[in-house]
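Posting for a labmate who doesn't have an account.
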Amino acid sequence: MEVIGNSLLIGNGLNRCSQKKNVEWNAVLYSILEHFGFTDVKDIYFDSYPLKFEYIMNTINSDENNSSTPIDNYRLAKEFVIKYLDDNLGNLHSEFSEAIKGLNLNSILTTNYDLSIEKTFNTYKYTKTAREQFKSNSENRRLITNPTSTLSHIRFYHVHGIDAEPESICLGYEQYSMILSELRKRLTSDDSSGRDRIIMYLNNETPARKEDYINAEFETRFFDTNMAILGLGLEAQEIDIWWLLCYRAYLYYSNKDQARELIKNTITYYDVHPIRKTDKGYLYEDDYVEHQKEKFSKMRVNYVPLPVKGIEYKEKYLEALAMIKKDFSTQ
């Protein structure tokens, strides 16, 4: 299968380009405890936000004064997070909006729950198809994998849930694990043939290629579009994204069912990050970039470092988008 378009995967870094203050996830999570009436909140260190979220929920669920069930507490916590983000996130700055709109895109994927990107394109509608898929998915009620809205030829995906369905938002490891399990089921071996489903798709062994593309879940975009990743820290908790990158690399290196002939797309990670520094200067930055390049090269992902000094995040994101525009115009 030839590459059939370009996609942008964008994450929480997008908030740095909003018209309101940047939302820090540590503050969001500890606000959950305050919302549930905990006033003496200790900032316990965890390596990941999902683990911190699970600690917070265990704190709430173990409280003898809390009469709600754990299931209700999870639901109430997610509803609170959606309201918190809605109150504190603004629309994107116009320069950033115009830069995104200027890209030659077929798909936009985001790990964010809000509709700030859709508002850039003046499309707010959460599609009937997406709602019906979410409501009818009795086995995995909290997963939304197909497009949540469309505008012309661009399809929008909320890979970690959408604020219109609070149950769908991914905060803890339980839900990350559920997403990963579903990805493996949809992409790997077909029970009848023993061949990976994604290989069959890329080899045009599905009934209607165009219809498959229109209705495909978000993970397919990692294989059939040239993808730019921006504003996503790609920290350890992003196990679903990491697995997709690793699985794509595995198929290529193993050449399973001639996968090398089928995986023709490119993935590029634009790493906007604060300069890593030591007391003696910026020596650590060189080590960081070298390690990142090595790590991503083995996953067949292009790596573009964009170090930030001070508060110039907006300028770096605009620089990255200009680079993406140029790359997509030449592919």
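Reply:
Got it, the structure tokens are right above this. The chain is about 45% helix and 10% strand.
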